[in-house]
Design goal:
With 504 residues, the chain is α/β, with parallel strands linked by helices. The protein folds into two domains: 31-52 and 210-371 and 434-500, Rossmann fold (3-Layer(aba) Sandwich), CATH 3.40.50.150; 80-104 and 125-195 and 379-430, no CATH class. It has helices at residues 31-43, 53-63, 67-72, 80-85, 93-103, 130-142, 146-158, 166-183, 186-192, 198-211, 214-229, 249-256, 282-297, 348-358, 378-399, 405-424, 437-446, 456-469, and strands at 110-112, 115-117, 235-241, 265-272, 302-308, 326-332, 363-369, 449-451, 474-479, 482-487, 490-500. Strands 3, 4, 5, 6, 7, 8, 9, 10 and 11 form a nine-stranded mixed β-sheet that branches. Strands 1-2 form a two-stranded antiparallel sheet. Residues 205-270 are annotated as: VHIID.
């Protein structure tokens, strides 16, 4: 909840996309996102019977194995604990505790990075700080000390709850993930999140974007940058890697409708992961139908193409590139789900970037979740994940009422889902793999991109909106042509603009 000395959150107002050459407008029509979302929830009854597009597709991706893996039966790298117990599927935590205690005396010294590690017992200190307990538990698990892990987990359980304060809520979801890792059930429990209905997730997402500026400000900056670039073009083609429900585009459609001389012909190619079943592109196509209706409402000539593939499998011929169109490629906060070179030898992240470079877009809009919890070594990844999610839960504690049901749902089915994947899944099953924005910068440069300067007017407008309309601890900064957003000094999201360089 808000501190009594802080200003209350303000109601979102109608704002419009920058379209004039001066770039002086200060409005962005972000309420179009709320109208678009409300229309979905009110008119599409089947959303209550459908799983969330994002969760379901990622869960499917987490179950896939490459053809090479199938041929040679080469399992993903496992941590020391799973070497001994990867086949154990326990029915309950108490049985797991008894089982491990009965075996602990007969296990040899565990092997980490090729060297034997002596089993060591660390005195468990009685304390009530769940974050410190989590850190101790993660260290014990990384060292293969199952007895201490179990004892610490019991202590965490006693002092954590999905209804407690921010640290206790976070500890609850980490405890679930730790237990799943001990049991070897992480991938199954992660896939189980796909049973949550799309309607529930979207309702909770509405609460999230109301309380937190990250997605709104990313959309404002990206859309205004695109609109300024396309100010005089008659044809604009946007290729969106990771379109999901298309929430970024109602704002720009509404803004383009007001352009002097009329809007350009707008074409959006929406790319997202295939869904399970016989119609892998169904939900990506549904996004297109919603956007078509929205474009008709504002008399914007509009075409949509749906592609349901993993990013690295998209081909140029899939995209129907027209050299007369201004081409923009957009990927905001979804590249983290593309597997990296620690899992797949052909470096799919670099392959996707090189493919985008071959398209020769007039602009590549790249937004990244700035995360440090993608380390191969479990203890490092666990510690960084605790720090990251501490920030997220603290942010929600300060900006949303304690008993808000949508906040509880978002924490359970979004934060809790991601924690489960980061802590309890390995190999291809771990699809949450964020990297620091500086590492993405190196990847982009290596792929042949040149970074564009940020528009200072748009950046200052974003910063002013955050200072005026949101909690005082949200921050907007600029670093080497990256727009950074965060909470209490910790950078959570970064966005930048690129174009292909002259190299072949």
């Amino acid at each position: 909840m808000y501190n009594k000395h802080d200003p209350p959150p303000r109601t979102q107002t109608s704002e419009t996309v920058v379209l004039s050459s001066s770039g002086s407008e200060k409005v962005d029509y972000f309420d179009g996102v709320f109208c678009y979302l409300n229309k979905m929830l009110m008119e599409e009854d089947d959303l209550t019977n459908k799983p969330c597009m994002f969760i379901d597709s990622l869960a499917l991706q987490a179950t896939e194995r490459s053809f090479y893996d199938v041929l040679v039966y080469n399992p993903p790298e496992t941590e020391p604990l799973e070497i001994y117990d990867s086949a154990v599927l326990c029915d309950d935590f108490n049985r797991l505790s008894i089982q491990y205690k009965s075996r602990s005396s007969s296990l040899p010294g565990l092997i980490t990075d090729g060297k034997p590690v002596k089993k060591r017992r660390k005195k468990v200190v009685e304390m009530v700080d769940p974050t410190e307990l989590l850190m101790q538990c993660g260290e014990a698990m990384a060292n293969g000390d199952t007895t201490e892990t179990v004892q610490l987990l019991k202590m965490i359980r006693k002092d954590s709850s999905p209804l407690g304060n921010s640290s206790r809520r976070m500890a609850h979801y980490f405890a679930n993930a730790i237990e799943a890792r001990l049991c070897g059930t992480g991938p199954e429990l992660y896939r189980a999140f796909s049973s949550t209905s799309a309607a529930q997730i979207l309702k909770s997402y509405k609460a999230y974007i109301t309380a937190c500026p990250f997605h709104r400000m990313s959309n404002i900056f990206a859309n205004k940058s695109i609109a300024k670039l396309a100010n005089t073009t008659n044809k604009l083609h946007i290729i969106d890697f990771g379109i999901l429900y298309g929430f970024q585009w109602p704002c720009i459609i509404q803004g383009l409708s007001l352009r002097p001389g009329g809007p350009p012909k707008l074409r959006i190619t929406g790319i997202d992961l295939p869904q399970p079943g016989l119609r892998p592109s169904q939900r990506v196509e549904e996004t297109g139908r919603r956007l078509i209706k929205y474009a008709k409402r504002f008399n914007v000539p509009f075409e949509y193409r749906a592609i349901a593939k993993t990013w690295e499998n998209v081909k140029i011929e899939d995209l129907d590139i027209d050299p007369e169109e201004m081409l923009v490629v957009n990927s905001v906060y979804r590249m983290r789900n593309v597997l990296d070179e620690t899992v797949v030898e052909n470096r799919p992240r670099d392959s996707v970037l090189k493919f985008i470079r071959k398209l020769k877009p007039d602009m590549f809009v790249h937004g990244v979740l700035n995360g440090t919890y993608n380390a191969t070594y479990f203890h490092t990844r666990f510690r960084q994940a605790v720090l990251h999610f501490t920030t997220l839960f603290d942010m929600f504690e300060a900006t949303v009422e304690h008993d808000d049901e949508d906040r509880k749902l978002f924490e359970r089915d979004v934060f809790g889902r991601d924690i489960m994947n980061v802590v309890a899944c390995e190999g291809r099953s771990r699809v949450e793999r964020p990297e620091m924005y500086r590492k993405w910068e190196m990847r982009n440069l290596k792929a042949g991109f040149v970074q564009l300067e940020l528009d200072s007017d748009i950046l200052n407008e974003v910063r002013a909106k955050v200072e005026r309309q949101y909690h005082k601890d949200f921050v907007v900064h600029e670093d080497n042509n990256w727009m950074l957003q965060g909470w209490k000094g910790r950078v959570l999201y970064a966005l930048s603009l690129w174009k292909p360089g002259n190299c072949s």
